[in-house]
Specification:
By secondary structure, the protein is of the alpha/beta class. Helices cover 38% and strands 18% of the residues. It has one domain: Purple Acid Phosphatase, chain A, domain 2.
Length: 284
């Protein structure tokens, strides 16, 4: 049995600066049809939609979610018609819990006595109110991001996405951690400041998110054969533990990651990464 795990599409209204996915409906429909024939289960692990980012500081997240649902209706209908899928909410699409009846987490029995435990991960660091009732500085941050993307798309092309660039820089920063000068460069200090700002009103520091997920995954493991998956951090991680327990963070699904997805095999007990960008380029 092959299980595709994906999260953090941040799919907004196509062509709008809020849309980090950068794929039109036909491209996504073709991809979903391909996945349906190749994989036994497709897990959409939160933040599939983007409803927090707007040109305005104050707006209704539920109304924005409905606008995205209307624009992406063919994609939503296709997802919900798939023969075997599971879909949970994240912090950037939390209104879907009410609008579509999606759960916050799930447990799914798999073949070969494996069990899948999926959460987006945002509720491990703060309660839902942290995401649904943003303070003014968060509204301002997403509004500024929208306007930066609008200018960037005009100057650099439609693929410009500030959020994806930040996520890529953070991942490179993490990978270079072992070789970093203890005093830190100016870039290091800026990234630390960004992480500190992102953790305002949070129950844990954002810089410890990877460790937090590792510890939580180990708490969720059964005696054996458990696959625990989170998203949220946009930082893909795969780790194998004793007794065939596996932890995977799905990372982001974006142009900058080659639209890649982790695939878990219950026969092998391992994860492989499949890039979908070459397939999508045919339809661009």
């Amino acid at each position: 049995m092959n299980v595709l795990c994906t999260s953090d599409w941040h799919m907004g209204i196509y062509g709008d600066p809020s849309d980090a996915l950068k794929l039109n409906n036909n491209q996504v429909l073709d991809l979903l049809s391909r996945w349906e024939t190749e994989y036994d289960l497709i897990l959409f692990n939160g933040d599939i939609l983007e409803v927090l980012k707007s040109a305005r500081i104050k707006f209704s997240h539920s109304e924005q979610a409905q606008r995205v649902l209307d624009d992406r209706l063919p994609v939503i209908e296709k997802i919900m018609s798939l023969k075997n899928y599971r879909w949970i909410v994240g912090n950037h699409d939390y209104p879907l819990e009410q609008l579509l009846g999606l759960p916050q987490s799930l447990v799914v029995p798999l073949e070969n006595d494996y069990t899948l435990i999926a959460q987006h991960g945002h509720l491990l660091r703060a309660p839902i109110e942290h995401y649904s009732q943003y303070a003014w500085h968060f509204h301002l941050m997403y509004c500024l991001s929208w306007w930066i993307d609008r200018v960037g798309m005009k100057l650099s092309g439609e693929q410009f996405c500030l959020d994806a660039m930040i996520a890529q820089s953070l991942n490179e920063w993490r990978l270079a951690d072992a070789h970093r000068n203890p005093s830190g460069t100016a870039r290091d200090r800026i990234i630390r400041l960004f992480m500190s700002y992102a953790s305002l009103n949070s129950d844990v520091n954002y810089a410890s998110l990877d460790d937090l997920f590792h510890k939580k995954a180990q708490q969720l493991f059964g005696q054996r054969n458990t696959l625990v998956t989170f998203g949220h951090s946009h930082h893909r991680q795969i780790q194998y533990f004793e007794n065939n327990n596996v932890y995977v963070n799905t990372g982001s699904f974006s142009y900058h990651s080659g639209y890649s997805t982790p695939i878990f095999s219950t026969d092998e007990g391992t994860i492989t990464i499949v890039k979908n960008q070459s397939f999508l380029s045919v339809y661009s």
